[in-house]
Amino acid sequence: MDLKAVILDVDGTLIDSNDAHAQAWVDVGMEFGYDITFDRVRSLIGMGGDHVLPELTGLEEESEQGKRILDRRGKIFRSQYLPALAPFPYVRELLERIRGDGYRMVVATSASEDDLHALLEQAGVADLLDDATSSGDAENSKPAPDIIEAALARTGFSAEEAVMIGDTPYDVKAAHRAGVQTIALRCGGWDDSKLEGALQIFDAPAELYLRYSDSVLGEVGQRLYWPALPT
Fold first, then answer.
1. What would the pLDDT profile of 107-120 be if each residue is shown by its tens digit?
2. Confidence of residue 222 (pLDDT cuts 50, 70, 90)
3. Which one, of 64, 30, 1, 14, lies nearest residue 204 by Cα?
4. Cα-atom radius of gyration of the chain, to the nearest Å?
5. 18-84 CATH
6. Rounded Cα distance, 94 and 210, in Å
7. β-strand 104-108 against 200-202: which pairing, if any?
8. Domain 5-16+86-224 classification at class level
9. Where exactly does CATH 1.10.150.240 map onto the chain?
10. Mean pLDDT of 161-186
11. Which of 80, 121, 129, 139 has a 20 to 30 Å separation from 87 between CA atoms?
């Protein structure tokens, strides 16, 4: 593989936020009179609100009530849950290694732009990224390929020259539909059977960092960019 770009998911990949997003949906459901259980919504995290909202409420995101629910959900998440979230261990070290190998790094997330900026700051990695795309940059969110294609365009490289790092089945499906291979992480809450189709699967950013030379990133990075490392 002649990789030159890495497309990154954020929630559940760089920062441990999937449960918090699910709980924010439960909370907003209670406020608006919808019976949304944690288990039901947790399996949907990773898709954008344009998919999650109708699944949980029957409302479309363009409806007035749908807009109010999505706006309120975002405010609940950012005010009540985001401040307590932490990046996964070794996230910054991993991104520094990827950046040091010369890869271009662009975020592709179904999160809103407001959520995205807050998440990247909370994860402490905003300064390491070359660019970012959010829900506003795509007509359809994951598992549609739109956001991956938007991020790919920001990298300036072809699908064959990029790999995505994500944590949900929706990341794997969206990347596949865009022609991009995926490195999947289990830390988002899905097992290998749900992440089928990924090129490689690791437990979390820490394992990918510590086993970097075993990944396609390390294989390409050491060959193209890095001098011989001391043994």
1. 999 888 888 989 99
2. very low
3. 14
4. 17
5. 1.10.150.240
6. 9
7. unpaired
8. alpha beta
9. 18-84
10. 97
11. 139
- Of all residues in the chain, the percent with pLDDT exceeding 90 is 84
Whether 178 and 159 have beta carbons less than 8 Å apart is answered as yes
Distances (CA, A) of 154 to 61, 107, 158, 159: 26, 10, 10, 12
Other Cβ atoms within 10 Å of 62 Cβ, number: 8
Sheet with 181-185, strands from edge to edge, namely 131-133, 104-108, 5-8, 162-166, 181-185, 200-202
Q: Which two tokens stand for residue 9?
A: 């998911």
Phi, psi of 138 (to 5 degrees): -140, 140
What values do phi and psi take at 100, rounded to 5?
-65, -25
Helix residue ranges per DSSP H, the chain:
18-32, 38-42, 49-57, 64-76, 91-100, 113-123, 146-155, 169-177, 205-210, 216-224
Structure tokens at 151: 């991020």
Say what the pLDDT of residue 15 is: 97
The average confidence (pLDDT) of the chain is 92
Q: How do residues 120-150 score in pLDDT, each as one tens digit?
A: 999 999 999 999 998 788 888 899 999 999 9
Tokens representing 12 are 């559940």
How many residues make up the chain in this entry?
A: 231
Element containing residue 187 per DSSP (H, E)? none
